[in-house]
Write a structure and sequence with these properties.
single chain, about 550 residues, alpha+beta, Purple Acid Phosphatase, chain A, domain 2, 6-stranded mixed beta sheet, disordered C terminus, binds 2-acetamido-2-deoxy-beta-D-glucopyranose, binds fe (ii) ion, Purple_acid_Pase-like_N, Purple acid phosphatase, signal, metal ion binding, glycoprotein
């Protein structure tokens, strides 16, 4: 114990003059809660379709809603856009996508396009079998994949159909760095964005941080909650329309959102994953049509062949985007793909592995509490065994960063889970915690839109035998009801700085959101990727458990002395 104390005092005196950014090595941290700042309203109204940022700015024949997405490697990138007029109302007629070509002209110098690439185009419709619901059919949605690009280089491009003299104005992008020990300078992470005054605030701040990549962790536009007229349960979403007339979705919202995002997405690749607000059921039991048709994702390039889950590399970071609204069971295609994808990773080339899906596994807010327990029980062990470093989710409309955790136990080799479902959507911010008196959801609340219900009572720790804790759980390091976005700056193969940018902090000095260095410990946690043999046997060595224990004692001591 003497040496521990010595270490503590050394640490204290050597850092007292500055306020160093903590690292995960200082954890696990004593849980901290910041409730909603009472000077802020919980939310704001939707930006109307008449807002200039949502209005169409070019003629019908010209490309609009231009957006980029990364491919598996930096030598390739997706360019997407929309032409033609979407229709909404009775008797809509789908446009013919063969009437307009999908061309991208590009090159390394502004105005000089040495390369041309063609791609494909398509349309989708959103139809409802009730007179009170408006039918919709989209403009023509184009996707072109550029290939043969150099990593870390700026390219200039135009898109459209040259035979119709309908090429866009010039835009440019910088390709991501090559894998290895090169890292994209800043990656923005945002979830549950919607299109309110809070969402525009989030996106303005995100843009001012000049990210090289945007991770959009599901629930994009909330087109299913714009101008909903109610019915049973207002606002109505996924009411699945036996109750018609109810406006289930207002699809022009997607077009408004595409225009609103274009200044950003035409120059920075944005990677999306589906959330529950993308389900959008329609006639014939069809779902996800807008999500699946509008966004190009590297599904073929990453061997998933499903736009619901895929992976890609951004420099030395391997990203895995998982689908929480398609089969995630061990017996299913997604799980097999995930296992193969994890197995293929070479940590010398991509030392960092970041996974992301919409609905969080670890969440201490009342909202969506334990909603995705089934998914956790199916997949957590696999992610842990392959040493996934960070997990980003949304869905809960507030911020929460977990202590390193595995199977609900503090574990120095568990991923750092972070929830950022607070981009600013119309449902407003979540402010209640499952451990607040009277706020523990009943076991029949929080039923997921997909997958089963696996709610469980804790088997160990202070909440043993209970569904909710009566204080902030030990696995929740920091939680705060604020809108904003996060930035991850990977420094090297073991250090990454994570910062939470709250909307209310814009233009204010000395006011910062959560920040922490996420530190990998490959020596401590190296998983030599053993096959999963038993459900009960822990793959951790004694050494790891010992280190974990010491770390916990130390940090408890540290916290108490403050
Ligand atoms: C959301 O935006 C509105 C309008 O700008 C503002 O009054 C409110 O405080 C914001 N809420 C949060 C939590 O930032
Ligand atoms: C929408 O399309 C469906 C399927 O074609 C049709 O049954 C329905 O009547 C249409 N609704 C309107 C308002 O035209
Ligand atoms: C629907 O629109 C098509 C094409 O505009 C037209 O030919 C057809 O008569 C219309 N049908 C109805 C029922 O209005
Ligand atoms: C376009 O579609 C064809 C046929 O479906 C396919 O072979 C090709 O790869 C597609 N091209 C792009 C860029 O998606
Ligand atoms: C996943 O497994 C659970 C439990 O066996 C089952 O209830 C559920 O229906 C399965 N889901 C799918 C999509 O197969
Ligand atoms: C689970 O915990 C709740 C209270 O948190 C309690 O009412 C319930 O009986 C417990 N269920 C089991 C099976 O222990
Ligand atoms: C990684 O960066 C951190 C923070 O700047 C630094 O302390 C550490 O020494 C670096 N590690 C290596 C291997 O360069
Ligand atoms: C997780 O914890 C539960 C409850 O303690 C236990 O039954 C289960 O076997 C554990 N799972 C793994 C993969 O260790
Ligand atoms: Fe959600």
């Amino acid at each position: 114990m003497n040496s521990l104390f010595f270490f503590f005092f050394f640490f204290f005196f050597s850092t007292a003059s500055t306020t160093p950014i903590p690292t995960t090595l200082d954890g696990p941290f004593k849980p901290v809660t910041h409730r909603l700042d009472p000077t802020l309203r919980q939310g704001s109204d939707d930006v109307p379709m008449t807002d200039p940022r949502l209005a169409r700015k070019v003629d019908s024949i010209m490309p609009e809603q231009i957006a980029l997405a990364a491919s598996y490697s930096p030598s390739s990138i997706w360019v997407s856009w929309v032409t033609g007029d979407a229709q909404i109302g009775a008797n809509v007629t789908a446009l013919d996508p063969t009437t307009v070509a999908s061309e991208v002209w590009y090159g390394e110098e502004s105005g000089k396009y040495g390369f041309k690439q063609r791609g494909n185009s398509t349309v989708y419709s959103q139809l409802y079998p009730f007179a009170g619901l408006l039918n919709y059919t989209s403009g023509i949605i184009h996707h072109v994949r550029l290939e043969g690009l150099q990593p870390g280089k700026r390219y200039y491009y135009k898109c459209g159909d040259s035979s119709l003299s309908a090429m866009s104005k010039e835009h440019s992008f910088k390709t991501l760095p090559s894998p290895g020990h090169n890292f994209p300078p800043r990656i923005a992470v945002v979830g549950d964005l919607g299109l309110t005054r809070n969402s525009t605030s989030t996106i303005d701040h995100l843009a001012s941080n000049d990210p090289s990549l945007i991770l959009m962790v599901g629930d994009l536009t909330y087109a299913n909650q714009y101008l909903t007229t109610g019915g049973k349960g207002v606002p109505c979403y996924s009411c699945a329309f036996p109750d018609a007339p109810i406006r289930e979705t207002y699809q022009p919202r997607w077009d408004g959102w595409g225009r609103f995002m274009e200044p950003l997405t035409s120059k920075i690749p944005m990677m999306v994953i589906e959330g529950n607000h993308e389900i959008e059921p329609q006639i014939g039991g069809m779902t996800f049509q807008s999500y699946l048709t509008r966004f190009a994702v590297p599904s073929q390039e990453s061997n998933s062949n499903s736009n619901f889950y895929y992976s890609f590399n951004a420099g030395g970071v391997h990203f895995i985007m998982l689908g929480a609204y398609v089969d995630y069971n061990r017996t299913g295609a997604q799980y097999s793909w995930l296992k193969a994808d994890l197995h293929r990773i070479d940590r010398q080339v991509t030392p960092w592995v970041v996974a992301s899906w919409h609905s969080p596994w670890y969440n201490s807010y009342s909202s969506h509490y334990q909603e995705f327990e089934c998914m956790r029980q199916e997949m957590e062990e696999l992610l842990y065994q392959y040493g996934v470093d960070i997990v980003f989710s949304g869905h809960v409309h507030a911020y929460e960063r977990m202590n390193r955790v595995y199977n609900y136990s503090l574990d120095p080799c568990g991923p750092v889970y972070i929830t950022v479902g607070d981009g600013g959507n119309i449902e407003k911010i979540d402010t209640e915690f499952a451990d607040d008196p009277g706020k523990c959801p009943s076991q029949s609340d929080n039923i997921p839109e997909f997958g089963g219900v696996c709610h469980l009572n804790f088997s160990t720790g202070p909440a043993k035998g209970k569904f909710c804790w009566d204080q902030q759980p030990e696995w929740s390091a920091f939680r705060e009801s604020s809108f904003g976005h996060g930035i991850i700056e990977v420094v090297n193969a073991t250090y990454a700085l994570w910062t939470w940018h709250r909307n209310q902090d814009s233009y204010k000095e000395n006011s910062r959101g959560d920040e922490i260095y996420i530190v990998r410990q490959p020596d401590l946690c190296s998983k030599s990727v053993q096959p999963i043999t038993s459900k009960t046997g822990s793959p951790r060595s004694k050494e790891v458990l010992h280190a974990s224990f010491l770390g916990f004692i130390f940090s408890s001591l540290f916290q108490q002395l403050f």
